## 1
Amino acid sequence: MAEMTPKAARLAAMIQRTVAASLERDFHDPRLRGVTITEVRVTNDLHIARVYWTQLGEVGKESGERERARAALNQAKGRLRSKVGRKAGTRLTPQLEFIFDEVPATAADVDDMLVHAARRDEILSHLREGKSYAGDADPYRHDEDSDDNGIDEDVEDSGVVGSDKASA
């Protein structure tokens, strides 16, 4: 998406303040309880304003409350646009499109996953206490273990490496 022009950004900020204040002060619809305006993006031609919103609801009832809030916002769209038009004082008032903002819900899911992973790491660290690896502490070969040409003597004696000893 192209970046907003300064005029579109100013209008978006004004729309966000106006819509949020109107929802809080002027609309007493119980379906709009807990609705928060998270962001507004205005197209550069100033014709469309996408209003992103989220809602804090009761656990287990979020989807139903979200649908009722979406219906209430769509019903209030005309009155909100009138308020924005009076406040903006521009020749054209942008059409308002209400879009549910999935970012807070996704962020909460990610936070839950991180807490779960931290708990599992803690359990694993307790299980590892006092334990040691099976075998050598350092199972890798080092330069002092092999001769000058980089081939182990054990492998060279087995006749697998070097065709001179195998053919003799």
## 2
Amino acid sequence: MRNRFLFLLACTVVLSFSGFVSNKPAYPQLGIVAGLAQDSLAYSAGFKLIGESVPKILAPALSDEEFRANLKKIKAAKCKVLSCNLFFPGTLKIAGPNVDEAKVLAYTETVLSRAKEAGVKYIVLGSSGARSIPAGYDIDKAKSDFVALCKKLGQLAKKNNVTILLENLETTETNFITSLKAAAEIVTQVNEPNFRLNVDIFHMLREGESPDEIIAAGAVVGFCEIAEKEKRTLPGVAGDDFRPYLSALKKINYKGFIFIEASSSNPAAEYPIAFKYLSNQLAAVYSRK
């Protein structure tokens, strides 16, 4: 009996070290910013994770009754609602001279506490209007004040077991933090475990940023979003090659989530194509030795 126990124990150890006993994915898991309305389509296409928006399911403007109704929808969904975008409305400034910190923190507390209850793990901080600053405003002061505010946001996120993800946007959307490098510098200065960097490859493509910027920012990367460059279409529509950027993610040993955030005129036809197309590029990159 003892010899059999030792044999089984040895087999378990061997299998564990061989990679057969592991809950960790071999490479990043795919999701799509589709919303609950597209849950069934996303699931049938192969996705198991979806993104929603703060205004639709978590915002303070929603009554408790409306939020409870959303909770039922989230629980019934086939896909796991992992993330939400559109964090702050443009009327609630988070950068520049007109920030009302008390209002921002109160708003954030409600959003994050609801996210915790809903099981939403990531809140994407793009919020182009909320973070835009007046022309000619002191950029160093804007950054310093923004870092101070984001420290407090990060602490609220930790309290609610949620991660806030600062997104690199493009110059057509905002005039504040328009590169991955600039976003990574903010996240590094904030230095809170629940405030991380969202690598938006679509915006990197639009701004002509090299995949090397992902490698440079590796220590603070917490999430990734993607879409095709020209018309923000789903992967596979125009046929963009994302492999240089995916290779950069592999180099930093990123095995988190990659969410497609793109427009689609025909989700039923394009979702399956996108899932297969991006899965194939991921497999090609992450299977290389």
